[in-house]
């Protein structure tokens, strides 16, 4: 039995190490691909690229703040547990001190060691003597046990009090770090707004340029194609079985139809723009693995999930990307927040589904 358990544990450990190694290799391949892709598609003439660093920084800042908030929640839960331990220990000490006081008082009334000596010297019944001596031994043992328990609880209390103090200091440090993060985030947001104000006219002009939109679409298609070439198969429920059952990634108003040509430039829509309030949570439509989480011209802070069998879902114009490359997600997990990154005028989410690199109509997959 022990041998079988040991074999199972060793096998599980090796399997986990292998999975972690595969994940690290996947992240490295995607990171290298992303660097090459960014370098190949870099264009200093695109004014929207001026937004890249500030919008990346805003996403990173919000993600860091969320991580700090989670650490604070964990630390506060630990602190509450420690404080409860402290209250319990103090209550136990009070009870033990009362018990010790009663034992000492009873010993005082009985005369203690002097009475035991009298019993031995006096001519008393042997049975009665044995009972009386046993009684005194019981009181002495109870007193010793109580004092030992009190000393032990005092040691525990000192330890817990020190842990409470350390945990309180940890929370204070996290709060200070959070304040610094908020100040930095505000600076990044002001910088982004200044950039938007500076290039507002150029952005409006570029939104009408067919060539720019075609380049953005081609860039996205190239990215998806290159990602598909380095991705392993994702095991689990086939994505195609979810056709007609997907929930929208965010509660918002759909402003266009897939395949319909845009009024301003006559180019077809390859996805949906869902107008929604800023900072609203964006949910993964199905389980899979994040294969892209970065800024892309025309799509702002973009996140792509690989669902296996050639299917991917894309989420653009986010303010914050909470998930990173290599992260596994389940349907309904929060992956980002709504924004208007990429120079978008309206707050909302750009959503696409793709199969083998080609856009597919979300209307056939999202439940009505």
List keywords for this structure.
368 residues, alpha+beta, Helix Hairpins, 2 domains, ten-stranded antiparallel β-sheet, 57% helix, elongated
Q: What does this protein look like?
A:
By secondary structure, the protein is an alpha+beta fold. The chain has two domains: 47-207, Helix Hairpins; 212-368, Glucose Permease (Domain IIA) (Distorted Sandwich). Helix content is 57%, strand content 15%. The protein has five helices and ten strands. The protein has helices spanning 2-41, 52-110, 113-121, 126-207, 210-230; strands at residues 253-254, 272-275, 281-283, 288-296, 300-308, 311-321, 328-329, 334-338, 348-355, 358-360. Strands 1, 2, 3, 4, 5, 6, 7, 8, 9 and 10 form a ten-stranded antiparallel beta sheet that branches. A hairpin with a 2-residue loop joins strand 9 and strand 10 (358-360). Helix 2 packs antiparallel against helix 4. It is elongated, with a radius of gyration of 34 Å.
């Amino acid at each position: 039995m022990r041998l079988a358990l040991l074999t199972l544990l060793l096998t599980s450990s090796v399997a986990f190490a292998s999975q972690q190694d595969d994940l690290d290799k996947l992240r490295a391949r995607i990171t290298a691909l992303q660097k090459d892709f960014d370098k190949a598609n870099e264009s200093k003439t695109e004014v929207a690229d001026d937004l890249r660093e500030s919008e990346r920084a805003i996403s990173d800042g919000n993600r860091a703040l969320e991580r700090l908030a989670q650490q604070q929640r964990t630390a506060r839960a630990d602190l509450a547990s420690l404080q409860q331990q402290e209250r319990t220990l103090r209550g136990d000490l009070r009870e033990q001190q009362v018990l010790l006081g009663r034992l000492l008082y009873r010993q005082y009334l009985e005369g203690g060691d002097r009475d035991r000596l009298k019993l031995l010297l006096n001519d008393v019944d042997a049975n009665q003597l044995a009972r009386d001596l046993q009684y005194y031994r019981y009181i002495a043992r109870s007193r010793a046990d109580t004092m030992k328990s009190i000393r032990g609880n005092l040691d525990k209390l000192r330890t817990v009090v020190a842990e409470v103090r350390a945990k309180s200091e940890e929370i204070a440090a996290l709060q200070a770090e959070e304040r610094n993060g908020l100040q930095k985030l505000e600076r990044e947001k002001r910088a982004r707004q200044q950039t938007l104000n500076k290039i507002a006219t150029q952005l409006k002009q570029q939104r009408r340029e067919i060539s720019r939109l075609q380049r953005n679409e081609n860039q996205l298609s190239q990215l998806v194609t290159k990602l598909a070439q380095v991705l392993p198969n994702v095991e689990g429920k086939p994505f195609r079985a979810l056709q007609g059952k997907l929930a929208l990634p965010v509660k918002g108003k759909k402003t266009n139809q897939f395949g319909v040509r845009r009024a301003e430039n006559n180019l077809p829509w390859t996805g949906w723009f869902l107008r929604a309030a800023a900072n609203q949570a964006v949910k993964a439509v199905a389980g899979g693995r994040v294969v892209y989480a970065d800024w892309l011209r025309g799509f702002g802070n973009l996140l792509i999930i690989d669902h296996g069998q050639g299917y991917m879902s894309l989420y653009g114009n986010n303010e914050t990307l909470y998930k990173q490359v290599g992260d596994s997600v389940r349907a309904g997990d929060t992956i980002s927040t709504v924004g208007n990154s990429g120079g978008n005028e309206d707050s909302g989410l750009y959503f696409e589904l793709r199969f083998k690199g080609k856009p597919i109509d979300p209307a056939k997959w999202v439940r009505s």
